[in-house]
């Protein structure tokens, strides 16, 4: 589902690095309706026949829930509005992936899971819609009931739900999956994510209840996204094996696909189950229409693009502005054999950035971090490198109402004022924005300000370098897994040299990169913290003190700040959406004032290219990622004899140019 972070823009939902922490992003996205295990697209689909109504907690079992709102889809809905329920099935969809893979288990910390395994093979109790900020509707679960005190939620399973080996999905399987993922055999991300869940209790063969330790506004939504798998997955060698040793055993789960064949590290091919149990389930109707889906791995971007033009795969999501402007041209594009278009979206952008590892001594002072950020000339980069395709990201919650703007509101001040003596003054001023070189500002002015900040922090220029009081020169390394970032870092490094700072680039293979990031063995990395329209539990393992000390977690910065901890706790405990917005904006102010990141850039379209005959629904969802949407909702509709214009008209979703 994820392509690598691009040197020219956000890299979608990051997946290529294979970090177990990415799995947690996948888990959260399951609850939000933005990953592949979720409904994704439509053609002339009708809205629900009966509007849903909000059920009071504990009153009854319901078909779905929406956080702080009434579900958009009623109990008698037959499919999502952005899905074509009559989509034809058949054919093979060939896709690309970057790097390599060495395992089929996406839940353990070590190794890199094959692309597609999580999305095509595993399912959860519930999934969200792509046109609501946060909702859940039954998939494996037929219905659900939230306790009146909100300290537990009960799910009843669909009797027809089946694993790929034909076994029914039972409450025991759900509990086994949940307990396994919370054990030390799985990535620590899972334990962190469900830290507020006391236990899973089997009521009967088709009913399971999750009990909570404390109230958490979204926890009932999150546990609905528990990936479920069969205990038989670990018995394929005739005896039970420890979960961490389930490495290359093909998963036994309930999703629409099984593995047909693979060439370890190079390619993998999935085959659709002939009698997939959920074909008529409303949350799956009209989806996963390809008989086979395959992924072929490439080592570099140039090889991937040339392979696409040579016909080796059928669809590409392009991140790089340079590639989009200069590589998707030629005879096949002119003839309409290959189609190039942009699809608008309303996705929250979060924050892709260069992130400081403040565990390193030279980055502990916020003035140093602010000074280094002043050396990045975004406006020059956008003109010279990005073909003016981007906007500067400005917040950890970019493109959402959660982003702080202007001065703190009265409600924000109520949260922030008790910590005034522990917060930077900038928190109480206008929300910090990234530095700019747009007139009347200039790079020279920014570098002058940077020198002043560095001097205040004890770094002065002498003997040809910026040095601290002990004479140690200022030098750091940016760890990368792709060379595509080198052209971005080159002008940034030249500007840093003017301050006497040496910034080196280290490009490693995917496996070593993952190991170093898991161990926090880096000075600076490129990462994209995704956000959503409803932030929640993911903030715990991104920004809190406990996550900073746990290897393999998502706190890449190394933040250990009691104020941040308390603001995250507040976000998880709010009762209303207005309170959520207030608390999240307060957190955003504190993080931005800390200068933990050098913000990158974003746009609000998906740049895609695909082969003629590949067709998508007419109606676009609101919150989606392009490759996930294609996997789940497109189909082959061969029109080889049509003119290029006719073919383009027949296959382009609404919203494309």
Description:
The chain has 657 residues and is α+β, with helices and mostly antiparallel strands. It folds into three domains: 20-298, D-Maltodextrin-Binding Protein, domain 2; 301-346 and 605-651, no CATH class; 351-602, Dipeptide-binding Protein, Domain 3 (Dipeptide-binding Protein, domain 3), CATH 3.10.105.10. Helices cover 26% and strands 19% of the residues. The protein contains 20 helices and 27 strands. β8 and β9 (207-212) form a beta hairpin. The longest helix has 17 residues, at 577-593.
List keywords for this structure.
alpha+beta, 3 domains, disordered N terminus, five-stranded mixed beta sheet, 26% helix, Dipeptide-binding Protein, domain 3, 657 residues, four-stranded mixed beta sheet, 20 helices, D-Maltodextrin-Binding Protein, domain 2
Overview in brief:
The chain is of the alpha+beta class and 657 residues long.
Strand content: 15-25%
CATH hierarchy class name of the largest domain: Alpha Beta
Structural class, by secondary structure, is alpha+beta
Shape assignment: globular
Describe the protein's topology.
Blueprint: H1 20-32, E1 64-66, E2 92-98, H2 117-121, E3 123-124, E4 126-127, E5 135-138, E6 141-146, E7 152-157, H3 171-181, H4 188-193, E8 197-204, E9 207-212, H5 219-223, E10 227-228, E11 257-263, E12 267-272, E13 292-298, H6 301-309, E14 315-317, H7 321-326, H8 331-335, E15 338-344, E16 351-356, H9 366-373, H10 378-384, E17 391-392, H11 410-416, H12 443-456, E18 460-462, E19 465-467, E20 475-480, H13 486-497, E21 502-507, H14 510-518, E22 524-529, H15 538-543, H16 545-548, H17 562-573, H18 577-593, E23 597-599, E24 601-602, E25 605-611, E26 614-615, H19 626-633, E27 635-636, H20 644-651
Parallel strand pairs: 2-13, 20-21, 20-22
Antiparallel strand pairs: 1-5, 3-10, 4-5, 6-7, 7-9, 8-9, 11-12, 12-13, 14-25, 15-25, 16-22, 16-23, 17-24, 18-19, 26-27
Helix pairs in contact: 9-12, 11-18, 17-18
């Amino acid at each position: 589902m994820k392509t690598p972070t691009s040197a020219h823009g956000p890299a979608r939902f990051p997946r290529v690095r294979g970090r177990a922490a990415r799995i947690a992003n996948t888990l959260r996205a399951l609850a939000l309706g933005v990953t592949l295990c979720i409904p994704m697209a439509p053609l002339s689909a009708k809205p629900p026949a009966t509007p849903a109504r909000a059920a009071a907690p504990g009153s009854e079992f319901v078909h779905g829930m929406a956080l702080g709102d009434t579900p958009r889809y009623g109990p008698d809905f037959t499919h999502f509005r952005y899905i074509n329920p009559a989509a034809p099935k058949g054919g093979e969809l060939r896709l690309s992936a970057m790097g390599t893979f060495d395992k089929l288990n996406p839940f353990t910390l070590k190794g890199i899971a094959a692309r597609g395994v999580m999305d095509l093979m595993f399912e959860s109790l519930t999934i969200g819609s792509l046109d609501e900020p946060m909702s859940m509707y039954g998939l494996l679960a037929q219905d659900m009931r939230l306790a009146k005190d909100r300290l537990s939620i009960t799910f009843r399973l669909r009797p027809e739900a089946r694993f790929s080996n034909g076994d029914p999905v039972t409450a025991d399987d759900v509990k086994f999956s949940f307990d396994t993922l919370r054990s030390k055999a799985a990535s620590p991300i899972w334990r962190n994510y469900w830290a507020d869940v006391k236990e899973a209790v089997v009521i009967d063969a088709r009913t399971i209840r999750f009990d909570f330790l404390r109230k958490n506004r979204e926890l009932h939504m999150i546990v609905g996204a528990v990936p479920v798998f069969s205990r038989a997955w670990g018995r394929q060698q005739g005896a039970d094996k420890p979960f961490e040793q389930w490495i290359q055993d093909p998963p036994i789960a309930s999703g629409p696909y099984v593995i047909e064949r693979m060439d370890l590290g190079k390619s993998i091919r999935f085959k659709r189950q002939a009698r997939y149990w959920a074909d008529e389930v409303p949350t799956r109707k009209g989806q996963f229409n390809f008989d086979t889906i395959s992924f072929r791995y490439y080592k570099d971007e140039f090889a991937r693009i040339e392979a696409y033009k040579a016909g080796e795969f059928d669809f590409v999501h392009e991140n790089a502005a340079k590639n989009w402007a200069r590589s998707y041209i030629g005879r096949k594009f002119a003839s309409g054999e290959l189609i190039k278009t942009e699809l608008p979206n309303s996705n929250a952008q979060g924050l892709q950035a260069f992130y400081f590892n403040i565990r390193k001594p030279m980055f502990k002072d916020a003035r140093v971090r602010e000074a280094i950020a002043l050396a990045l000339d975004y406006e020059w980069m956008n003109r010279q490198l990005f073909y003016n395709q981007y906007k500067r990201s400005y917040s950890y919650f970019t493109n959402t109402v959660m982003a702080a703007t202007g001065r703190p509101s009265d409600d924000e001040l109520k949260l922030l004022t008790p910590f005034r003596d522990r917060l930077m003054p900038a928190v109480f001023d206008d929300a910090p924005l990234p530095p700019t070189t747009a007139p009347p500002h200039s790079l020279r002015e920014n570098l002058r300000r940077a020198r002043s900040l560095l001097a205040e922090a004890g770094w002065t220029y002498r003997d040809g370098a910026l040095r601290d009081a002990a004479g140690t020169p200022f030098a750091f390394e940016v760890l990368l897994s792709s060379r595509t970032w080198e052209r971005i870092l080159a002008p940034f490094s030249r500007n840093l040299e003017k301050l006497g700072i040496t910034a080196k680039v280290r490009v490693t293979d995917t496996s070593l990169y993952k190991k170093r990031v898991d161990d926090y063995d880096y000075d600076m990395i490129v990462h994209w913290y995704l956000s959503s329209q409803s932030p929640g539990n993911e903030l715990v393992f991104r920004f809190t003190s406990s996550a900073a000390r746990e290897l393999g977690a998502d706190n890449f910065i190394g933040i250990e700040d009691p104020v941040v901890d308390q603001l995250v706790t507040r976000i998880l405990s709010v009762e209303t959406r207005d309170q959520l917005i207030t608390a999240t904006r307060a957190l955003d102010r504190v993080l931005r004032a800390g200068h933990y990141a050098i913000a990158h850039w974003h746009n609000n379209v998906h740049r895609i290219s695909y082969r003629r005959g590949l067709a998508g629904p007419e109606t676009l969802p609101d919150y989606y990622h392009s490759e996930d949407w294609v996997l789940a909702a497109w189909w082959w509709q061969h029109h080889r004899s049509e003119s290029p214009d006719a073919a383009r008209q027949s296959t382009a979703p609404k919203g494309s140019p």
